């Protein structure tokens, strides 16, 4: 119950509903027992009349009417409490989902580097469903049942202590057997959840990369992987089922033995006239009510263990250390003529070697700088540090003489526009994607951005124009079209710092020309940082920073570095030689 108690504790805004529910459930439980008590007096009144010992018709009618009234009030109160219970569980589901989602938006980039998005979403889904299911059951079923069990034993003790004792000991016996059954169930449930997380995560990856899967004809292998995982889940479920039914047999056996003893006591005391016929009917009803409660015990405890296991991963995410606070109100702060300076910056990911080692450089206002080097040299890491996705391990980064450590991540990112290599688009409309960096943009502003990005003409040819949906990751657009939508988004944001992360690396020559023309509009009067492998795209930059194994090995203008022995010249020569061989092959001189 530890995690469930924690959930109740963190949901303070809903505690007033919990109090109201508690009061309603308490009185509903009492009302549920009034009808059996009244039935005793009704039966005794009838028996007295049958045996010729009197009987009062008016009293009988009053008792019948009172019984109906109590049942009606109980029904109304139960309906209200169940409705409020549903309202509470719905509000709680919303509250917990928002809390989880809020947390995911504050987690550091390093968290997402080590977790599959499908797994995270599955943890959210399972956690919310199991918690919601348990609390819905708790408010509508578990708490009323628990209270009625207590009141049942108290009423039985008033009429016959031995019967009350035997009824009472049913609960600890049943609870102990159910506890050990559900503990074993819970341990298996966590194993099952771990496999399910991997399976759902993999399925989402496969669906997201379906063209890759199909192109390598890997459908059968991917299906077999999921099939095996599902078989493993079924194997675990079979063990759970076996354990449950073994314990269920002993629960049933203990119930039968104790009910046998109770029946002997009830019938013997009635035979000896220690109990009236009405008293016998009352006790049998109460024992039967307690019996129904016991049947629910295993289900209740299974629900508890399922909610505990499901909420475990939920709390793992909730308790992960946040790195950002996006809720903090930060006014729009565009920095005029920004400059970026790295001063002996080193960085390494968790448990890895240094990715950057004492890197120092300066990018001045309106300067275009290219980062060049082999894959893994540290180019993308520098971009991630500039975006404050990570904090440097040592050294300082400055934005116009202000330390990054003193600047909120929102202020930094307000001043940066980014054009990705991988066509980062949402599956929504052209309009929404372009205005993502400026959500209150007018249609006129969106159209102007599309024109400057050389995207307006093809957008106007789409069926719904600005309101055409682009599909997941822009699948309905070509590579060049997706890049130009990204550029339009960056143009509309109009931040003073622009980062181009290999923005033309995956394009054909025609698309690259269109994108380059659009980039010229985007780069005007900005501090520009470019990651590029095609040196033709960086021939007009002001400065090139050459990286190798996490260190800067050279800095200079493109023309200077091309004439100077070193890594840049070597990389440039490889590309030129490759192009020469291609031209010679097709006899183009």
Key traits:
single chain; 589 residues; alpha/beta; ABC transporter transmembrane region fold; six-stranded mixed sheet; four-stranded antiparallel sheet; 18 helices; 10 strands; elongated
Detailed description of the structure:
The chain has helices at 2-10, 15-50, 57-106, 109-114, 117-159, 161-208, 210-215, 219-271, 277-318, 379-386, 409-414, 430-434, 443-452, 456-460, 479-493, 509-522, 558-563, 567-585, and strands spanning 340-348, 354-363, 368-373, 394-399, 402-403, 416-419, 497-501, 527-531, 543-548, 551-556. The strands form two sheets. A six-stranded mixed beta sheet has the order 6-7-8-3-9-10, sandwiched between helices. A four-stranded antiparallel beta sheet has the order 2-1-4-5, covered by helices on one side. Helix 2 packs antiparallel against helix 9, helix 5 runs antiparallel to helix 6 and helix 6 (161-208) packs parallel to helix 9 (277-318). It has a domain at 97-318: ABC transporter transmembrane region fold (Up-down Bundle). The chain has 589 residues and is α/β, with parallel strands linked by helices. The protein is built from 18 helices and ten strands. Helices cover 65% and strands 10% of the residues.
Annotate the secondary structure layout.
Elements: H1 2-10, H2 15-50, H3 57-106, H4 109-114, H5 117-159, H6 161-208, H7 210-215, H8 219-271, H9 277-318, E1 340-348, E2 354-363, E3 368-373, H10 379-386, E4 394-399, E5 402-403, H11 409-414, E6 416-419, H12 430-434, H13 443-452, H14 456-460, H15 479-493, E7 497-501, H16 509-522, E8 527-531, E9 543-548, E10 551-556, H17 558-563, H18 567-585
Parallel strand pairs: 3-8, 3-9, 6-7, 7-8
Antiparallel strand pairs: 1-2, 1-4, 4-5, 9-10
């Amino acid at each position: 119950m530890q995690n469930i108690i924690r959930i109740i504790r963190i949901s303070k805004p809903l505690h007033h509903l919990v109090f109201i529910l508690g009061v309603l459930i308490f009185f509903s439980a009492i009302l549920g027992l009034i009808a059996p008590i009244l039935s005793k007096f009704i039966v005794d009144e009838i028996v007295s009349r049958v045996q010729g010992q009197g009987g009062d018709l008016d009293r009988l009618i009053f008792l019948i009417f009172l019984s109906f009234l109590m049942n009606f009030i109980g029904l109304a109160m139960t309906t209200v409490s169940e409705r409020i219970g549903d309202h509470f569980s719905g509000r709680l589901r919303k509250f917990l989902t928002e809390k989880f989602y809020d947390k995911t938006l504050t987690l550091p980039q390093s968290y997402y580097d080590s977790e599959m998005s499908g797994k995270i979403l599955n943890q959210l889904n399972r956690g919310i469903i199991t918690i919601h299911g348990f609390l819905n059951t708790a408010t509508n079923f578990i708490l009323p049942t628990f209270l009625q069990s207590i009141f049942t034993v108290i009423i039985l003790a008033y009429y016959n202590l031995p019967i009350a004792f035997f009824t009472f000991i049913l609960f600890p016996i049943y609870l102990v057997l159910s506890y050990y059954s559900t503990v074993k169930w819970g341990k298996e449930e966590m194993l099952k959840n771990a496999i399910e997380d991997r399976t759902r995560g993999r399925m989402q990856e496969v669906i997201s990369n379906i063209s890759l899967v199909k192109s390598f004809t890997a459908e059968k292998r991917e299906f077999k992987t999921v099939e095996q995982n599902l078989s493993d889940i079924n194997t675990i479920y079979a063990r759970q089922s076996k354990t449950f039914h073994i314990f269920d047999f002993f629960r049933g056996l203990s119930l039968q033995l104790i009910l046998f003893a109770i029946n002997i006591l009830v019938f013997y005391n009635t035979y000896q006239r220690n109990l009236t016929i009405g008293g016998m009917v009352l006790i049998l009803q109460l024992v039967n009510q307690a019996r129904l409660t016991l049947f629910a015990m295993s289900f209740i405890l299974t629900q508890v263990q399922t909610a505990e296991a499901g909420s475990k991963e939920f709390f793992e995410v909730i308790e992960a250390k946040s790195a950002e606070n996006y809720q903090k109100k930060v006014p729009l702060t565009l920095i005029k003529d920004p400059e970026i300076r790295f001063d002996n910056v080193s960085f390494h990911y968790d448990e890895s070697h240094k990715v950057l080692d004492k890197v120092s450089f300066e990018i001045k206002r309106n300067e275009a700088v290219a980062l060049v080097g082999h894959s893994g040299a540290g180019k993308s890491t520098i971009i991630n540090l500039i975006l404050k996705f990570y904090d440097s391990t040592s050294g300082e980064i400055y934005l116009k003489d202000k330390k990054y450590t003193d600047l909120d991540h929102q202020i930094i990112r307000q001043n940066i526009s980014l054009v990705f290599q991988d066509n980062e688009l949402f599956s929504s409309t052209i309009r929404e994607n372009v205005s993502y960096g400026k959500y209150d943009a007018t249609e006129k502003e969106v159209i102007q951005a599309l024109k400057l990005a050389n995207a307006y003409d093809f957008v106007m040819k789409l069926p719904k124009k600005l309101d055409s949906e682009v599909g997941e990751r822009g699948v309905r657009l070509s590579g060049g079209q997706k890049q130009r939508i990204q550029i339009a988004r960056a143009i509309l944001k109009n931040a003073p710092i622009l980062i181009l992360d290999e923005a033309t690396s995956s394009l054909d020559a025609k698309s690259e020309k269109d994108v380059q023309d659009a980039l010229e509009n985007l780069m005007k009067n900005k501090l520009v940082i470019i990651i590029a492998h095609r040196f033709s795209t960086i021939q007009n930059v002001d400065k090139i920073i050459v990286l190798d194994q996490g260190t800067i090995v050279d800095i200079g203008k493109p023309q200077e570095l091309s004439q100077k022995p070193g890594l840049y010249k070597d990389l440039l020569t490889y590309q030129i030689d490759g192009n020469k061989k291609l031209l010679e092959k097709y006899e183009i001189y």
